[in-house]
Task: structure prediction
Amino acid sequence: MRMAEHPLIIEARYNGPPGSGNGGYSAGRFGTTVATGPAVVTLRLPPPLDTPLSVTRTAAGVKVYDGPRLIAEAAAAPAVDAVVPPVPYEAALAAGADYRGLTAHPFPTCFVCGPARAAGDGLRLFPGPLPDGRTAGAWTVPEEVSPPVVWAALDCPGGWAVIAPARPYVLGRIIASVRSLPQPGDRCVVMGQPVAVQGRKAQVLSTLYGPDGAVLAAAAATWIAI
Result:
């Protein structure tokens, strides 16, 4: 038997691809309904925007529906211990100048990494490539900071470790651990790293570092080529 909970809405400004929610932000909203700590979220369909979604609790966790359509499943999960080694903030800022999304972005209005979003509207987190395959992005934390926003910041830097020209990916599953929220105005570094690519699926890691170099959050994700 499922127990219905209050509707959940992903507001239009938190888009990833046009017309659907950013994967990381949406997963953060879904994951925080089931656990105050680490959670795993599997996206079954693109989360619709400005649409009341029903959240139902089951023995395994929660399920999120748009009418009869299953959008996502979420459950508590073990903490993500694997981290991507960091670079200094200045090195992450320099890497951002080579961010591939500046010239060829499949979703340029993405809330997290879209270059078409104005400062203060999107996160404008531009994860650029490093010679060893990692990505690094410098992130000045906005006034609006919450666990779902941190999930969002962990999302795209991992994806850009595998996204290639004419080969876009979208988030399929993410496990995230938020140890501590950064403060508005903090100059943070977000790292991404590919782990394995098999067929259309890519496994990636991402890590958020605070201004003092402490790990604030970490994620392990599966991205799906489209």
